[in-house]
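We were asked to recover a plausible sequence for a given structure. The inputs and outputs are reproduced exactly as logged, with field labels preserved.

PROBLEM: sequence recovery
POSITIONS: 306
GIVEN STRUCTURE:
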């Protein structure tokens, strides 16, 4: 059954090499888009010998819902093997540690058969190939946009005015997109936060809540700026700008609530990462937790903005 599996169109030839051995050719299916990384090998009946799935960026995997065991090979940024987890059975989890940047999944026993070991080099596909295999697929964009549409529809159902429902949908969509990018690339684009701040301030001014919105921007952005200065690199400036956008959108009265939820959930997530990876240098994207706090605060306010 496994030998009859056909790999999809994103198949590329790469080589596992070492200083002492000839290259070993592997047919590699590259999963670098958010949707394909999330799906992984779910639904597949197996893998043929000499073939595998490269997931990047990725430093942890699970086999929930899978029907066969796999070998998991964790690679660093340059493609060197940093950890191998052989025979990972279904309904298990595995973590590659702080040095792992991408993950190669093979049929169980294949890593040993190919002679792949810690310290060997896997020649990764070029950036051009990876961009064709990953990027923003239509399904991902549609799913994130759907978050905004759903939020707007719920707002209309709760009696929110049409323009406010549209603003609410755009706000939730911006939170979803910024979270996805932060998880994938560890950055939050200015193209999201700057227009969001301007739009939030403009809408608030038009509805008579300009002072509330501006105060929220200063309070939220100021507190996160202080955390950025104290944290010495643990937070990024993208987090500060996202916090300013959220403060402008929700208003000053919602800032304590959303920051409390964001910091509490983020701290619990960081503790979980620390306990699992046992590495104090492990990092955590904070943008999704800011977005979670903002969404919760908006819900607590009856799906309303500033």
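RECOVERED SEQUENCE:
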């Amino acid at each position: 059954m496994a030998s009859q599996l056909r790999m999809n169109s994103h198949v590329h030839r790469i080589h596992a090499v070492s200083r002492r051995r000839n290259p070993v050719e592997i047919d590699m299916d590259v999963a670098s888009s958010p949707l394909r990384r999330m799906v992984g090998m779910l639904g597949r009946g197996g893998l043929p010998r000499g073939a595998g799935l490269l997931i990047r960026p990725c430093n942890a995997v699970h086999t929930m819902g899978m029907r066969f065991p796999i070998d998991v090979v964790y690679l660093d940024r340059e493609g060197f093997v940093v950890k191998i987890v052989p025979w990972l059975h279904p309904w298990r989890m595995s973590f590659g540690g702080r040095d792992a940047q991408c993950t190669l999944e093979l049929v169980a026993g294949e890593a040993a058969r190919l002679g792949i070991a810690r310290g060997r080099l896997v020649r990764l596909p070029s950036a051009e190939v990876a961009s064709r295999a990953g990027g923003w697929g239509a399904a991902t964009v549609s799913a994130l946009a759907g978050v905004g549409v759903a939020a707007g529809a719920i707002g209309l159902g709760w009696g929110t005015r049409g323009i406010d429902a549209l603003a609410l949908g755009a706000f939730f969509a911006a939170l979803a997109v910024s979270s996805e990018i932060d998880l994938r690339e560890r950055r939050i684009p200015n193209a999201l936060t700057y227009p969001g701040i301007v739009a939030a301030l403009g809408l608030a001014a038009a509805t008579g809540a300009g002072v509330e919105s501006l105060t929220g921007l200063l309070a939220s952005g100021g507190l996160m700026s202080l955390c950025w200065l104290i944290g010495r690199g643990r937070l990024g400036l993208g987090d500060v700008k996202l916090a300013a956008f959220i403060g402008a959108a929700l208003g000053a009265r919602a800032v304590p609530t959303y920051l409390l939820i964001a910091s509490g959930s983020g701290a619990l997530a960081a503790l979980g990462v620390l306990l699992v990876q046992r590495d104090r240098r492990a990092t955590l994207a904070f943008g999704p937790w800011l977005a979670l706090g903002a969404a919760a605060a908006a819900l607590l306010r009856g799906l309303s903005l500033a």
